[in-house]
Design a protein that fits this description.
It is a single chain. By secondary structure, this protein is α/β, with parallel strands linked by helices. It has helices at residues 3-37, 64-76, 113-121, 140-146, 163-176, 182-185, 193-198, 211-215, 226-234, 250-262, 276-285, 289-303, 334-347, 358-370; strands at residues 80-84, 102-106, 128-132, 200-202, 208-210, 266-271, 308-312, 326-328, 331-332. A 5-stranded parallel sheet has the order 2-1-3-6-7. The chain has a two-stranded antiparallel sheet with strand order 4-5. Strand 4 and strand 5 form a beta hairpin. It is elongated and about 95 Å long. The protein starts with a helix and ends in an 8-residue tail after the last helix.
Length: 378
């Protein structure tokens, strides 16, 4: 090897070292930020009580189901449990009698079969489970397309090292788009970039807080229900068409209720509401006949179990509910859910001890109204 060749090798080695150092620095900086934000920590580190005002909202991992189960089972052990999909996340601790512990496990359930699985894995039994039963859980078109089920859904996830590269890439992509504020990353007590940068996440009681929607509702994807109306036009994303409800999964619902009865858990279930404008559009289309038949199909299942009841809030048009009080086309705000709880307590006096008085509910509603939160202009 001559002198020139040795020089070229040394020069290549120096350049390679500089390159590797730069790559390491780039990856290392992202990892420091991601760890500081809570995005790449062990799952077990998330299972602890949140501070008042603290939010849990990861951007690059969807641990919602597992997080809600382990928080319910290992940390909160509530006497009153709100259970279901995102359509129960708006129920807050403030509406529950302070003599009872409460946690909102909304987001832990995405299909009816997961209800029995969730309860079967709980070590302690709540006294009351308030649960939403989404209409599309019994629509065959949705079941076939969007309703996967796994018996391991609540198992603690293991860290996947291959995921780190994706997180680093996503971090720099979001940073280049101005979605990440580094000052907030190193100055916030929230967990997860969605919580830190957008004020979106689960609060200490498990309920959902959406800060970006509160600050700028007109900038949201479903402002004035435009996104949901698109789903209705195309018959997709939970809004698949159906003439009759599918009764094949009533057995899964019966299994859930049987488990609750055996553990002396009172169950109050409801078919959750659509914004009046959205419901009107759905009914005018004439392709959602299954919804009108669903309550009558499910009611006998509940009647077979003592202490279990079902309410139908699919159509809240006649209750005075306002379109602007819905987060989007199928998620009511807290004032909508306070009104639903008020109606359920009026119809079933045994629920009264679990919730605050009507006077306190009125006060909570007044506080909500005083904030002048109108999510839509309709």
């Amino acid at each position: 090897m001559n002198k020139q060749e040795r020089y070229d090798i040394r020069r290549f080695g120096a350049r390679l070292a500089v390159f590797l150092l730069m790559v390491s620095a780039i990856i290392g900086f992202a990892c420091i930020c991601l760890y500081q934000a809570g995005e790449i920590r062990a799952f077990s580190s998330y299972i602890h009580p949140l501070q008042q005002g603290q939010l849990f909202g990861l951007a690059y991992s969807n641990y919602d189901k597992t997080y809600k189960f382990h928080m319910t089972d290992e940390v909160e052990r509530p006497q009153v449990l709100a259970l279901g999909s995102s359509r129960i996340m708006q129920v807050k601790r403030s509406v529950v009698n302070p003599d009872y512990s409460f946690y909102n496990a909304g987001g832990a359930i995405q299909n009816v079969r997961e209800l029995a699985l969730f309860v079967s894995k709980l070590h302690d039994s709540p006294q009351l489970i308030l649960v939403n039963v989404d209409q599309w859980w019994f629509n065959r078109a949705y079941i076939d397309e969007d309703q996967p089920y796994s018996a391991s859904v609540y198992d603690e996830p293991e860290w996947d090292a291959s995921k780190l590269g994706r997180c680093v890439c996503d971090f720099y992509l979001d940073l280049s788009r101005g979605k990440i504020d580094l000052a907030k990353v190193f100055g916030s007590h929230h967990i997860g970039l969605n919580a830190i940068c957008n004020e979106n996440g689960f609060a200490a009681d498990g309920s959902r807080y959406q800060g970006d929607m509160i600050m700028a509702p007109e900038a949201q994807e479903d402002y004035n229900f435009k996104h949901v109306l698109g789903r209705i036009r195309h018959g997709n994303q939970r809004f698949q068409y159906g003439d009759k409800p599918d009764g094949s999964l009533t057995g899964a619902l019966d299994d859930f209720l049987s488990q609750c009865a055996a553990r002396q858990i009172k169950v109050v279930a409801f078919l959750p509401p659509f914004a009046p404008y959205v419901y009107e559009k759905m009914m005018a289309m004439g392709r959602y006949g299954y919804m009108a038949l669903l309550y009558d199909m499910l009611r006998p299942v509940f009647e077979r179990h003592e202490g279990c009841s079902l309410y139908d809030f699919t159509d809240v048009t006649d209750t005075g509910a306002h379109n602007y009080d819905f987060d989007d086309g199928f998620h009511g705000s807290e004032i909508i859910y306070n009104g639903m709880i008020r109606q359920m307590v009026r119809q079933d006096s045994t629920l009264a001890p679990f919730f605050v008085s009507e006077q306190e509910m009125d006060r909570l509603d007044s506080v909500y109204v005083s904030k002048n939160i109108h999510y839509h202009s309709l």
